[in-house]
Batch of 2 targets.
Target 1
Amino acid sequence: MDKCLFCNIYESPKNKIIAESSLAFAIYDGFPVNEGHILVIPKRHFGSFFDATEQEINEIYDLLNKCKAILDNKYHPTGYNVGVNVGYDGGQTIMHLHIHLIPRYKGDVENPRGGIRKLKPQLVYYEG
């Protein structure tokens, strides 16, 4: 997996990793939607959430909770969005499963009703 960004991040020096289990790890998103935006990523290379094993899902869930505690302590968000993009047509741009843990803050959008459907204007331009 020479070209997989997430495989390369895991195999490089681990100073970027903020939490880890035997099957997954967590990093801050390089293009955060909000301050503290975290990605939880399985160590095994595969693309779809639906290809994860039960053990991988359990460890991802545990890491999401550990990361939430980190964010609660460091940034004090007042809400969260948790999201997964599956496949190109589902908006996935890196074909290695990753789960977004996005802290939300009072006033980060004028009206938060509708959750991720209205979270933020496009922050990163994707060609094509």
Note: The chain has a mean pLDDT of 89.
Target 2
Amino acid sequence: MEKHSKIYIAWHNGLVGSALRRRLESLGFSNLVLRNRTGLDLLDPSQVRNFFETEKPEYVFLAAAKVGGIVANRDFPADFIYQNLQIQNHVIHSSYLSGVKKLLFLGSSCIYPKLAPQPLKEEYLLTGLLESSNEPYAIAKIAGIKMCQSYNRQYGTNFIACMPTNLYGPNDNFDLTSSHVLPAMIRKFHEAKKGGTPEVTLWGDGSPLREFLYVDDMADACVHMMQNFNPTKEQNESGGMFLNIGTGKDIAIRELADIVGKTVGYSGKIIWDTSKPNGTPRKLLDVGRMERVGWKCGVGLEEGVGRSYEWYLTH
């Protein structure tokens, strides 16, 4: 990408898209094409096709997706599979038709089998059963990877994909019914502190191990991939056109709760509701491929949680 290249960020105002925008602007990329959800309905194929025909972006970051935590995935499985498939289909196909030079598709670490060996290597894709609580979302993301790979093989496009681990940071979703675990903890502990509540209830038993990546690190990795990762013909044939993005380190949810509580300043009791699901026992990404492309994360978990809480307080 050149500084004047025309770059489209699909959904630039969400957690991932806003981080991509911040990173690109900080590096001097000034020709960004931005449309919010009301300005361009990615579920409408005609709108997407007309947008690409008119704007003709050279590079695309496909950050748009319907996302949510365990509760949202459990209650709205049809929405998760339908909307994500539609968004991906429309943007990827229109990118091909309009001659986009390069596209980066963002997936999720939930694409891997529930009981795959740890850490999760890219080659473990489609080797076992998925975690049932978010299977529709995971299947949609797997389809996105395979769509990029298939277009590369059939049409010679340069569509790549990255699978970030659990993301958090500015513009996160802090709604308690649809958010992921870390922002939900921040809000719960903050409200308990503010209200003088003596205890906070969290789901599961606190034993699952999770990896967390500050979203601005993720954006830096994506821009690095766009600039430096161009899959070979062999990689496109084998599925090596996608890479994990993570820290290479995980932490028990119980320990995460201690960090968030300390950051927020909440000293009450934590009650673990073991009647609620834990989800996948462990989900740690192998980041060897990403490191070989020349990128490593820079923001530690405690620093990132502190930044996230500061953003929450001001927004």
Note: The domain at 7-168+213-247+285-299 is CATH 3.40.50.720 (Rossmann fold).
